[in-house]
Write a structure and sequence with these properties.
Layout (H helix, E strand, L loop, with lengths): L3 H12 L2 E3 L11 E3 L1 H20 L4 E2 L5 E3 H7 L1 H4 L1 E7 L5 E3 H9 L7 H11 L10 E8 L3 E4 L4 E5 L4 H6 L1 H8 L5 E10 L14 E11 L9 H4 L3 E5 L6 E5 H6 L5 H16 L7 E5 L12 E8 L2 E12 L1 H10 L5 E3 L2 E3 L2 E8 H12 E2 L7 E2 L10 E5 L6 H14 L4 E3 L5 H10 L4 E5 L2 H5 L1 E6 L5 E5 H8 L1
Parallel strand pairs: 3-10, 12-14, 22-23, 22-24
Antiparallel strand pairs: 1-2, 4-9, 5-6, 5-7, 8-9, 10-11, 11-19, 12-13, 14-15, 15-16, 16-19, 17-18, 20-21, 24-25, 25-26
Helix pairs in contact: 2-11, 3-12
């Protein structure tokens, strides 16, 4: 019997949310396309992120290149440090993500040392999960995609995160816009990681999308121009011991010295985007990472994890990256990346929110999926990210009802309302189709429109129907 997670995947494949890329050939693991429905939902999530993290804060957005030169990724540390441990099956020659295999089979979390992996293997004699063969040849594998630039020997890489393009242009943009610390610069876009064992649909991809905000602050003054908006927000916070959970105000965490004001502001923004896209907040935790879990450049790290049918997922990573990135780029480029403050020139500190857009998308779908209680599977996703605001159906394709329905559709579209129109199949099947893609309201143009300019409105969640006049539809939809 299929698990609920498998049911969700199959449902999404069938209904055009997402599906394996280039599937008419033998699909390559780790690559997925968004279909007509998924692409619209994804865009709605991006629009909400942009409203919260960029527009309302007065921050700015850039779009940097996907390909970068090797020197940039040497400076960032990705050439030397962006690796995962791998092993080779000596029988079928599959490459295996060995730390994940150890965690899944033995429940042991890897400590980052290759000698530990070999010691564990020597003790437990792990087998290839694909063919059962012996495994060996343990090594670290760099996860970046290499590419040649031009026709010479210039080596480049596809970006593994959007942040580095922000860092390399930070001083230029600050001068161009006349920015003083603190200020924020965000970016959304595709990134690429050559995962050893991609699996689980959208949850471990080789090509995916990030929503990142880099908040630059004065290291001598951590005042924050958006802190007051979020200081009284409560978040479900897990302590570094991995057990103690409490619902606590962001201001309380600041008073306890756990985080600074810019960092707390980003946690508040994370909470706001999850609320607005319909994440079930009872399944969310903000996990304070231990020192041995943090990246070496991070002073504070808090991951936002969301419980799903696929397990607990890390969806958002927040880190106080100090001046590590700008400092490294200043050293490797030889350019001055300092900014003027009241106490002299400093390299700005950076506090980062990095959202995995594909995982956030999946969590919204996972929490909205309803596979029981009705004849058909359906989606109770938040109305804020529904692919269409409303569906318009003629009861029948005769007596001018289809013409009237198209007039209603055009009226709504002209008012900036997105409409799904269908006149094929029974009206019951069309209702089911609208429910399957999460449309909150349907307008059925029946014979009452010929007499009194009235239509039937149906609610997705309750399935209740009521009569309404055309002039009332816009108010009901909005």
């Amino acid at each position: 019997m299929a698990s609920k997670y498998e049911n969700i995947l199959n449902f999404c494949f069938k209904k055009g949310y997402f599906y394996p890329s280039n599937e008419i050939y033998e699909s390559v693991a780790g690559f997925y396309d968004y279909g007509p429905i998924g692409a619209k939902i994804k865009k709605k999530i991006v629009d909400i992120w942009r409203n919260i993290f960029i527009d309302r804060t007065g921050f700015h957005e850039v779009e940097s290149t996907i390909v970068g030169p090797e020197i940039m990724y040497k400076a960032s540390g990705h050439v030397d440090e962006f690796t995962d441990p791998a092993a080779e099956c000596l029988k079928c020659h599959s490459i295996i993500r060995i730390d994940k295999l150890i965690e899944e089979k033995l429940g042991i979390v890897w400590d980052g040392k290759m000698e530990t992996i070999e010691s564990i293997h020597n003790q437990h004699k792990l087998k290839c999960p694909i063919c059962g063969g012996e495994i060996g040849n343990f090594k670290k594998v760099n996860l970046m995609f290499k590419t040649g630039i031009g026709y010479g020997n210039t080596l480049g890489y596809l970006r593994p995160e959007t942040a580095q393009g922000i860092y390399t242009s930070t001083i230029r943009n600050a001068k161009t816009l006349g920015l003083k610390l603190p200020f924020g610069i965000g970016q959304l876009g595709k990134v690429f990681r050559n995962e050893i064992s991609p699996r689980q649909g959208l949850l471990r991809l080789r090509e995916f999308s990030q929503l990142e905000l880099e908040y630059f602050v004065d290291p001598n003054n951590f005042n924050c121009n958006i802190y007051d908006r979020y200081k009284d927000m409560e978040i479900p916070f897990m302590a570094q011991d991995g057990e103690t959970m409490r619902k606590v105000k962001i201001s309380k965490l600041f008073e306890e010295g756990i985080l600074n004001k810019p960092f707390g502001s980003l946690l508040g923004m994370d909470m706001e985007i999850m609320t607005r896209i319909g994440i079930n907040l009872s399944k969310v935790r903000f996990r304070h990472l231990r020192d041995d879990e943090k990246a070496h450049y991070s002073k504070i790290s808090v991951d936002v994890e969301i419980e799903t049918e696929a397990g607990m997922l890390e969806v958002i990573s927040n880190a106080h990256r100090t001046d590590y990135d700008l400092g490294r780029h200043q050293k490797f480029s030889g350019k001055n990346l300092t900014m003027q403050t009241e106490k002299g020139n400093v390299i700005p500190n950076c506090v980062e929110s990095s959202i995995g857009l594909d995982r956030l998308f999946y969590c919204a779908i996972d929490h909205g999926y309803r596979g029981e209680g009705r004849e058909n599977e359906w989606m109770q996703i938040s109305k804020s990210i529904s692919p269409f605001n409303v569906a318009v159906f003629p009861l029948e394709r005769r007596d001018g009802l289809d013409i009237k329905a198209k007039e209603v559709m055009e009226m709504l579209v002209n008012k900036g309302i997105s409409v799904f129109y269908s006149d094929t199949g029974s009206i019951g099947r069309r209702y089911a189709r609208a429910d399957e893609i999460g449309i909150p309201l349907t307008v059925t143009v029946d014979y009452d429109i010929l007499d009194g300019n009235a239509v039937t409105i149906r609610d997705r969640d309750t399935m209740k129907q009521e009569k309404a006049f055309l002039e009332d539809i816009e108010k009901m939809v909005r």
